[in-house]
Every structure is written in structure tokens, then in C-alpha cells.
Write a structure and sequence with these properties.
alpha/beta; 7-stranded parallel sheet; two-stranded antiparallel sheet; 11 strands; binds dicarbonimidic diamide
Amino acid sequence: MGSVVIDAAPQAIALDPAHSAVVMIDMQRDFLEPGGFGETLGNDVSLLQAAVPACKDLLKLARAAGMLVIHTREGHRPDLSDAPPAKLQRGAPSLRIGDRGPMGRILVRGEPGHDIIAELYPAPGEPVIDKPGKGAFHATDLYSILTNRRIDTLIVCGVTTEVCVHTTVREGNDRGFRCIVPSDCCASYFPEFHQVGLKMISAQGGIFGWVSDMARISAAFAALPEALAVA
Ligand code: C5J
């Protein structure tokens, strides 16, 4: 398809859709819906809904452009053998990881709460990475999947901005990927952390990556002859 030039901070970045991937982080019921992991930690989960419309647009654009789309889910084996005691025992949540809640066992693979929300459900064939940690590269085969496909640029989005999105961007950056974060495709339970998290990515000449938004990404793709404007 050729090069798409996306306006971003700290400067515009050109990507080739054939060598780029969308990495949609943890858009799971456990984080976005009442009764899941996010709410057990005392958060207002409705705040994360802010990212859903732009994520839908991004999925539509990426699929139309033939880009690789990867989804991640944070969660653990039913026997919790991959969950560090330091994570299981952390804080004073209303329910702990593995406890039974209204959407099944909290943050456990295969439970209803662990699944991706209906609006952003993976299309057939799109890889879904089950990760035990915050970063999508830790203890997963994400790096192999990306390098086998010769991917060099990631559009990283999802929730939450300063936790799993940030950790994944940092991991990806250290592994040599160019990471672009669309601001409106991410959200946090803490709006101020969202804002500062984005600034941290693009500061110092793009120390971790680039920050853009769906309007600018859509405009960049629409500028191509193959025009892929998001409706
Ligand atoms: C958190 C995540 N916040 N997906 N996970 O625990 O950001």
C-alpha cells in the first residue's frame, strides 16, 4: 500500500500498513464493566467507555487496510499458577483475583469477565494474546508473532493508558518497535494519569514513541489513493 504519514507528537511518523500492527490492549469486561477486576479495585469503570468509539473506528480502518490486528487479555490460569503471590495479595480489593464475582472468577481465563467486550470483539483469525502481566511482551509469544510478520510499527491502544498500554509501549520500544499511541483510543480510571501518561510517551523527542489520535490517523489513511476514510 505504501507509506502513510500520520501527524503526531513529537513529529509526524510514516508507516507502511503491511509492516504495522494494531495492538488492542485488554478491552475486557473485567476492566470496562461493573463487577469485574477494575471495580474490585475501587474504580469507576464507566470512565473507560470513553475509548470505545475511537477503538471501533481504529479496528475498522486497520481491517480495511489489511493491517495485522492483535488483541490482548490480562488474566491467569484457573489454578492461578501463573499469578505471582505479590499480585494476588496486593492491596485490599473487594474481591481478589480468582474470587467468584458476577462475571465469573476475577481475571481468570475462560471466565465471562475475562472476555473482550462485544463492541471490539476480535475478528476470525486475529491473534489474541493472553498475558499474565501488565506488558503484552512479558511471558507471551507477541514478539515472535510480530517479528515473523516483519512488523516494525505498532499502534498501541486500549486500557489503561498508564498501566498496560504504557508498559507495552515501553516493552515494545525497548525491542525496537516504533509505537504510536492514539490518545482517544486509550483511557484510564484516572484522567490525570491518562494525560500525563501520554505526555511521557512523546516527551524528550519521543522517548517511548509517538502520540496521535483517530482524527489524524483517519486523515492520513484517507489521503492515500486507496482512500480508507472511517465512516
Ligand atoms: C490494570 C490494565 N490496570 N490492563 N490493567 O491492572 O491496565
